[in-house]
Amino acid sequence: MVHQHFKLVSNYTVAENIVLGAEPTRRLIGLAGYVDMRPVNAAIAELSERYGLSVDPTSVIEDLPVSTQQRVEILKMLYREAEILIFDEPTAMLTPQEIGYLLDIIATLRDSGKTILLITHKLEEIKQVADRCAILNHGKLIATMEMATSSTADMARRMVGREVIFEIDKAPARPGPVVLDVRGLVVENEHKVDVARDVSFQIHAGEIFAVAGVAGSGQVELADAIAGLSPVKSGTIQLSGRDITTAAVRQRTIGGISYIPEDRQDVGLILDFPLADNLASKSYFKPPFSHRGILRPEEFASYADDLIERYDIRCSNGAATLTRSMSGGNQQKAIVAREVEQDACLMIFVQPTRGLDIGAILAIRRRILEERDRGRAVLLVSLELDEILALADTIGVMFAGQMIKVAAADTLTREEVGEYMMGVKQS
Amino acid sequence: MNKHEDAPVQIQLNWFLRFFGNERWQFATIPLLAIAASLIAITAIVGAMGVNPLNVFITFLQGAGWILKPAYAGGYGMFSDLSNTLTFFTPMLLAALGVTIAFRGGLFNIGISGQMLIAGFLASVIVGYSGLTAWVAKPLVLLIGVVAGAAVGGLIGFLKYRFNINEVVASIMLNYILQYSVSYFINTRFLDQISRQSKVVSPASMLVLSSVKLGGVNVSVPLVFLLAIALAIALQFFLKKTRLGYEIKAVGANRRAAEYAGIRVPRTIMLTMMISGGFAGLAGVSYYLGYLNCIQPGKLTSLGFDSIATALLGAAHPIGAIASSFLITTLNTGSTYMSSMMGVRAEIAQLVTGMILLFSACSAFFRWRIAVAKQRAEMRAAGTVAPGAEDA
To answer: What is the rounded (10 degree) CA torsion for B338, B341, B347, B348?
Structure first.
């Protein structure tokens, strides 16, 4: 299997990585065992030649570009004479030229009799290289199709297939003035790669702006940048007419942004804190929680009791419950409670209902609509197309870091959104 | 959602898991478990040497002045020994508090010894060798201690957030730099030719009143003993009830979540290291101008390193640090008497201290084992574990 994140020892050579776990050992004068790399190097060079991988077995992994590292992973499988090769999102980190090269390699492997299983979000690649494809949605096999007779549009439609759980009554939006104005935003990840590119959009008071896109399209980084957790490379962010592009997180919180992050256990909560401390983690510094730098534990406790009651947070020990001991759903409710109570003019929700049961999902979706009706601007990032279609007033679709389509929700069909998400349709 | 949540299974745990598995009291029960385990190990070792373990523990307590010895030399009594223990206790507690606050902020201040040394050295040079009167000298010594320690701690914090230098590496390097530069200045300027140590500081600058007669016996009064206890209580209040304490704990528990909550993480890291260094500086002056009255050039005190284990034994809790400091200093000061009375080598006393510290350093492991055992018991009760799968 070629994993999405490579399993390589970065300070070893290519050949050393390939034989790791099955090193050919020899004994010097019958005693001292050592690893003999010479035949391995020759064998790998030969393999690399045969499948056109152009990898030098003696170069060190950390000196190689990502695409070559990936070919090392392929060589690893070939060296061990694997017959079934699994590729998990192999093109996620490659440039278009490299993708073409990789697809050629995959085709060569197939022609030499190997079985290839390719896992990908990108329909174009499937179209180019696959013979048959299976479509999965929420763990269910939707269809198995012959590629020769099917179109990408048809595939996209099946991929976004409807999950019928429930409908929510949604009153028409009454949008007010612009609250969030993002212009030409570029965000880098820690590897200095642009993950959001030239993104521009506006959100009005009383409007739910939903960002659709397959995982890793840059939507999470966009939300992080607006909340102030990752720096902006270029472009501007304005909140109610004030430039907050470089403002600190605390200033943005006070200025009226609340944020439900994607990673609730590692970012949204401090699991080793009692629930009360987490519920107040965005307001502990101001009255009534704190007065001249001294905290008021009784205020923390009564505030927590109030939220536990109103948001139906189940916890064994009330305000003093260790957050780590709570279930994921109740942890999520705690974050939602805290962020809704911020009384912010802009609320950012990233995957707010992931992993919750239907009752909790429904409650959170209703809450999002309520907040909209109370005149807040809502930025909703979700991988669930159903959630986006159920809630959005305006839909922005991100593909490969770009906001490729922004339109009113009622002018787009589910299929159209799906096609934009998969990059099948460009505007 | 977990399906057991709505209908919790009543589980019968055995007494051991009930007692040690309760997370709310683990801050106290786990160190007790560590101490109990080390006492058992010590009993086994000492017993194997043919010495009665009970007598070993009694002589420790006698040597440290907690219980009466059978006989005393003229002018000495139980309180002489006890005051010696408390004089050593004071820097130990202060240093352990320095380690504690750093731990709570997610940092590891291994440079306590270096911060102690520079604080002790500067206080000796500026105040100890001057002719200042006691009323001026003593507060000035404390002030210099705090400032010098906090400056070094702050430097480590600054290096961490500005240049992303790991605080452990920076502290160890600074330990060497401080150790040898202080040694250089002592050797070139402040050396006592006979003792080969730095010149003795003036009694006025000392944080201990030595040779005070109390009920006919000589005692030394550690002047900052109560200050150290008060600081431990203050630190507990600080961590629990102040805004900065909340921020330090948040950064220590989860840096990303702290940043998300709007806490300025770099500033908090620097402040944490400054407070930690400030405690180390206080420990330094109460050690070099209290327990001792001079500095041996070229050496770092082992107290700074022992304080790390002391803080661990105290479960990184200021009040716990008071208890563990009492234990560790008792072992330290009682060891000479124990070894001479029991006829065992002095190294055995070090071994005993080492055992306790070793077991206290294992407390995270104990905690983990207990959590695993508890989880298995719960799974067995719920019938979700297949027979034979437990050792997997």
So the answer is: -70
